[in-house]
Amino acid sequence: MKETIQSGNQRRRAGCPEEAAFLDLLRATDMLSRGLITVLKTEDLSMTQYNVLRILRGATEGLPCGEIASRMITRDPDITRLLDRLEKRGLIARSRETKDRRMVTARITPHGLKLLGRLDDPVQEAHRKQLGHLGRERLRALTELLQASTPK
After folding, report:
1. Cα 128 from Cα 135, distance rounded (Å)
2. Do residues 40 and 33 lie in contact, with contact meaning Cβ atoms separated by under 8 Å?
3. Which of 44, 54, 83, 136 registers the highest number of CB atoms within 10 A of its CB?
4. How far, CA to CA in Å, does 125 sit from each of 51, 121, 122?
5. Structure pTM?
């Protein structure tokens, strides 16, 4: 059975249910991202920069650059330049490890923590505005479905 998918004002049949689900997920991702981008613009941050800061907030001892890259939601092929921009703004600090000089560890700065603190409530409000209508049970079910679809 072919699923119906909609693109703009046009409807066509998807080749399979997986394609229909994939396209619906892409549309949802785009819509949800636009809402968050609006909030992040107030602090002149991109989604990837925000992602790095959130990762580092949870790593009090800092993380090697490769580990940050592996934890990111969306992959950025140039993690070094991304970290350069955050460091230039004083949001992160990087240092070379004394044991292995090849390893560079990044840490969030107090300035970076302060910026994230200002964003916490507006980001949560944006999430509630976009997804709150689903209710707790449906959100939990959606999360389980999405986690089950993520390859391990």
Report:
1. 10
2. no
3. 83
4. 17, 6, 5
5. 0.82
pLDDT in tens, 112-133: 999 999 999 999 999 999 999 9
> Six-digit token pair at 40?
């992040």
- Which residue has 């993380």 as its token pair? 63
Token pair 């950025």: residue: 76
The predicted-structure confidence for 6-44, as pLDDT tens digits, reads as follows: 555 455 666 788 888 889 889 999 999 999 999 999 999
Q: What does CATH list as the number for 42-120?
A: 1.10.10.10
Residue type, 30: D
Q: How far apart are CA 122 and CA 135, in angstroms?
A: 19
Q: Up-side HSE of residue 150: CA atoms within 13 Å toward CB?
A: 8
**Domain parsing of the chain, residue ranges:** 42-120
